[in-house]
Write a structure and sequence with these properties.
The chain has 240 residues and is mainly beta. The protein is 9% helix and 52% strand. It contains 4 helices and 13 strands. Strands 1, 2, 3, 4, 5, 6, 7, 8, 9, 10, 11, 12 and 13 form a 13-stranded mixed sheet that branches. A hairpin with a 5-residue loop joins strand 7 and strand 8.
Length: 240
């Protein structure tokens, strides 16, 4: 059962940050289309008999190691993610791609996090927020404009799509788990004013069909990313 509040306390964070002006654009997919992109040991999670894929652009602010005071280190990031679980039921995120302007984040590739460097911008035009990005390698790009709406009282699907407390990655056949802790997302409704993106097809998915579910959040300011943990084979197969 997905919880709106963090499932664990990250007592020893590897990084602290703020995630600000975040938009969530969610599309339903057939589970088999998502499962084909997952490593052994992860299962496509479903809601309403559909797997879901989300495009989530935002601002990373005050990114720093836990022992360092807040800094002005701020940059845009855009993730394409899906929702997964282990055979024992633990839920989390699987990132299909992460685009950033900060090459420093490429260090996470050591545990298989698929970061790419790109040219990304976040701009506000009145009540509309526009996110644009082009990956430096390949042809992946996006241009998204959204108009945030009224605050939401998060329901079942809203929570399921936005509140995940661990992320998985794979490197050299090893599956890693990174815990995440932050305050609950303050969600708003949002309307897409314009969207043109190739991130889904670049990830190996068919183009999305039908209107997306869209959320906006002003952000969370107490993000704690824990130390990645190598999942042993019993954890991956559900034997432990």
């Amino acid at each position: 059962m997905v919880s709106r509040c963090a499932e664990q306390s990250v007592l020893v964070p590897l990084l602290k940050a703020r995630w600000l002006r975040q938009t969530f654009v969610h599309w339903p997919y057939e589970p088999q289309a998502v499962q084909a992109l997952l490593p052994e040991g992860l299962i496509a999670d479903t809601y309403g008999e559909k797997a879901w894929v989300s495009l989530t652009p935002f601002i990373m602010e005050a990114v720093r190691p836990a022992c360092v005071p807040p800094t002005p280190f701020t940059f845009p990031e855009t993730n394409l993610r899906t929702y997964v679980r282990l055979p024992d039921g633990r839920e989390g995120l699987w990132f299909l791609s992460l685009d950033v302007t900060a090459p420093l984040m490429l260090a996470a590739r050591i545990i298989g996090v698929p970061y790419h460097v790109g040219n990304l911008l976040v701009r506000e035009h009145g009540s509309v927020i526009r996110y644009t990005g082009t990956r430096r390698s390949g042809n992946s790009s996006y241009d998204l404009a959204v108009r945030p709406g009224a605050p939401l009282v998060a329901g079942g699907l809203d929570t399921w799509l936005t509140s995940r407390w661990r992320a998985f990655s794979r490197s050299n056949r090893a599956l890693w788990q990174t815990p995440v802790q932050h305050e609950p997302w303050p969600l708003r409704s949002a309307a897409v004013e314009n969207m043109d993106q190739t991130l889904t097809t670049s990830a190996g998915l068919p183009p999305p069909s039908g209107p997306p579910v869209v959320h906006f959040s002003p952000g969370v300011r107490r993000v704690r990313l824990g130390i990645p943990r190598l999942l042993k084979r019993p954890d991956v197969t559900g034997a432990g």
